[in-house]
Every structure is written in structure tokens, then in C-alpha cells.
Prior knowledge:
Elements: H1 4-9, H2 17-24, H3 41-54, H4 58-94, H5 109-116
Helix pairs in contact: 3-4
Amino acid sequence: MFCWSTIQRGHFGGYTMVEKLKKMLIMEREEDLMALNLKNEEVERLVEEVSRLAGESKTEAVRRALRERRDRLVFKDGNRRRGDRFLSYLEEEIWPNAPEGELGRRLTREEEDQILGYGEDGA
């Protein structure tokens, strides 16, 4: 329990009352759905440092960091799915139509050179 004289002096659990209220309540735009209350000293320190370095609010620093991470994860997942689709294409369309005995056969040095356009005089 707190007393009014403590608040008037400006200290409330190590924070000024305004700082404490800011920690408890995050005022956002109407379209934002939920307040976020972080209780991790490292996270709080990082948010403070990033917002200071970027010259933006803590809320904006967190929003941008989360958006950037989400975009990286979506991109990574998209690349994984693209690789899966390519493998499926090879398995279903290309490999079944490969000439008998060619699938899995290693190219000779001469075949590699021919594909790369190497001749007697080089490339």
C-alpha cells in the first residue's frame, strides 16, 4: 500500500509515480489490442537503449523490432517452403522423366566441361 506523501515526494517503488504509471499502462492508438507489461531488466534496458539510439518512443522501438523479426521469420519460412516445393517438383515432374540409368549418375569431366562451354582453347 502506498501513501500520498510518498507519491508527492516523487518515489514509488524506486520510480516516480508517473514512471510507475507508464510502466503499468501503455497508452496506444485505438487499433492496438493489448498493453504489454515487461518485467525483465535486460529487456527494459534494451528497449531504453534502442529507443534512445533510434530517437523514437519505446513503443515504436518495440513495434519496429517485432515487425523486423516477424518479417525475417516469415521470409525464412517462405524460403523453406520454396525449397520444399522445388523438391516436390523434382520428385514429381523431373526425376520420373529422366532417361533410364541417368538418375543419380555422376557426370564425367568431359560432360561437365561441355555443359560449361569449355573447349580445347578454354572458355
